[in-house]
Amino acid sequence: MQVINPLLIVIFIPMFEYIIYPVLAKFNCLTRPLQRITTGGLLAASSFFIAGFLQIRIENSLPQTPTAGFSQFGIINTLPCHLNLTGLRNITLESGEVHVLENLEADKTYRISFAADGCGNLTKAEDYNVTLASGKIQTMMVTSNSGNIVLKNLEDPLRTSETGTANIQFFFILHKNLKLQPTVNSTLIIKGKENIYFVPFDFEKYTSKGITIGSMTSMNILPGEYNLYLPVADSPLKEKVIQTDAKIGTFHVQNGGSYILTLAPINHTEKLGFHTYTIIRPNEISIFLQIPQYMVITAGEIMFSVTGLEFSYSQAPASMKSVLQAAWLLTVAFGNLIVVIVAKLQLFHRQSFEFLMFASLMVAVMLVFAIMAYFYKYVQQPQKENTVIDQSNTEVTSRENVFSNEAFGDDKM
């Protein structure tokens, strides 16, 4: 994306010079430098408005984090039937559904009751006391064992990767009577077409309920399709593990998504089921939607910066042309300084607000500039004539505008 701006500049400069400006001149539009500068500044402001509204759309697609004094509680139903929840709010989750309760009052202890609906003898409710911290998100995974509902408190999965890759967590829920019993040194293998990851497990023992829950710390992986392998026995050579272990399942992840992978018995049998739960939807907005705002700001940059440099040079007296151009470039430095200060102060908790603030400031400044430009009187620079060289005495003279310099003296003795 960073290549688009310089590439468009190379394309737009001759286009403006030979097509756009001549066409506008036929309608007597933007014939003066200050008119072009004003229009360029307003175009630049428009590009920030476009960026701001695009950022709002991006922010609305992201999970909302709780504000101070409030919290959120997420539930992931891994049961093969409906799950009824009472206590916080009365809701019913379908099998495989992920639900987040928002705007819950923080620093309070809630008593929650879970009950399965349609899972045969799995009807016994499991009560759970939860204290929600201010500004935090707590997530619970609901599974089962021997007719009881089992709850697993998860590391916060409701977050996206800062690098734009996919975020995954893996859990397996195993009963003691199952043949598949990984040990504490087991390694989870995630293998794609071009990438492979070896991830050790953390184990938690539920001895009273005869259940083992293995978990993997959340990690970021590149988007794509992966095969999942869980070794039955330890092996010091990872290459042998890949060749000898059976594949558990296949899953697909996309940029920006957050996923939970589970391996659990199906209906209390020895058969294991592999499921992928999408906790946060992947990125839905294409990066190419930035191209329109790049095109607008590039057009504004050409009308503003190129014309501004030309204006400062042509309207300055001969003795101050360099000074006036330096002053013009100094305004760019001050503009960059303002951006640095705003970024460091972190005045806004949303990037869209910052974009819209810059856009509003630019509109206000350009309106003031337009009023000043309306009353500006252009300096008519005299046209320079070609010089004539006298072959007889090799002295260079000018047809017009010959100035005398009193400081000049003849160097002849």
From TrEMBL:
Q: Does the keyword Transport apply?
A: yes
Q: Is Acyltransferase found in the keyword set?
A: no
Membrane topology per the entry is: Multi-pass membrane protein
Domain of life of the native organism: Eukaryota
Which sequence ranges are marked TM in the entry? 6-25, 37-56, 291-311, 323-343, 355-376
Q: Where in the cell is it found?
A: Membrane
Q: Which InterPro entries match?
A: MFS_trans_sf, POT_fam
Q: Which family does it belong to?
A: Belongs to the major facilitator superfamily. Proton-dependent oligopeptide transporter (POT/PTR) (TC 2.A.17) family.
What is the protein's given name? Answer: Solute carrier family 15 member 1-like
Q: Which organism is it from?
A: Limulus polyphemus
Where is the organism placed in the taxonomic lineage, from the top?
Eukaryota, Metazoa, Ecdysozoa, Arthropoda, Chelicerata
